[in-house]
């Protein structure tokens, strides 16, 4: 799933490719991609893109002259693919991964695609971003200049969950998902199962520093990368996530995995759990 670094890189890419251009066609190509019906997508046609913003994992394509926001959440398997030109014949709805097409007056534009059979990619056309429930409920952005160490401490105060789950909660902190929560916890040398309530003041500082450094470095790696190569760039920069069985780049221990019903986390026992492997999430005791 695209997270803060990839969505921010897409925002920067689109800021350079979309802003100032007129939208001439918006074609929804699957029945479930569009989550709103008023205003209709046709209201965007003839408008000009004035800016591109980001709210957590959401992209916000703004057409201020029409007073409209096209908010896009790529979900787990969605992606944005830029096109310099399109075939003359319009695509057939319901065929393949193509979910929505946006065509500009200059003949370029982008496709939204989604792999797999579970379709969660979501597009909202609204007059205000806060009209999108997922955006309205978002917590603060971890890269906002005002989000300092003390802001994180206040958010975590009273939390009774494990730190992995807290980091992934979009209502607590916007934009961090499964991959970068693994990376942040590895950088902070913390067990993913450590209860938030057990964090010391020093550990909160370590967690904050690891979060800012991990996300900032990932954005810097992605900056200037074409939209079609961002997924590969993300994977190449990850140290533990998705690297089960490989050596930890810090200590050389073997990276381990804990599987869940619909996801998995990866961690280094030496760096994060005092050398203790977590064989099964359901059977392991929480590490302190």
Automatic annotation (TrEMBL):
Residue span(s) of domain FPG-type: 239-273
Domain Formamidopyrimidine-DNA glycosylase catalytic residues, every copy: 2-121
Gene Ontology biological process terms from the UniProt entry: base-excision repair
A matching Pfam family: H2TH
Catalytic activity: Hydrolysis of DNA containing ring-opened 7-methylguanine residues, releasing 2,6-diamino-4-hydroxy-5-(N-methyl)formamidopyrimidine
Cofactor: Zn(2+)
Keyword DNA-binding included in the entry's annotation: yes
Keywords, in A-Z order: DNA damage, DNA repair, DNA-binding, Glycosidase, Hydrolase, Lyase, Metal-binding, Multifunctional enzyme, Zinc, Zinc-finger
GO MF terms, alphabetically ordered: 8-oxo-7,8-dihydroguanine DNA N-glycosylase activity; damaged DNA binding; DNA-(apurinic or apyrimidinic site) endonuclease activity; lyase activity; zinc ion binding
Highest taxon in the source lineage: Bacteria
PANTHER family: FORMAMIDOPYRIMIDINE-DNA GLYCOSYLASE (PTHR22993)
Family: Belongs to the FPG family.
The protein, known as: Fpg/Nei family DNA glycosylase
Organism: Streptomyces liangshanensis
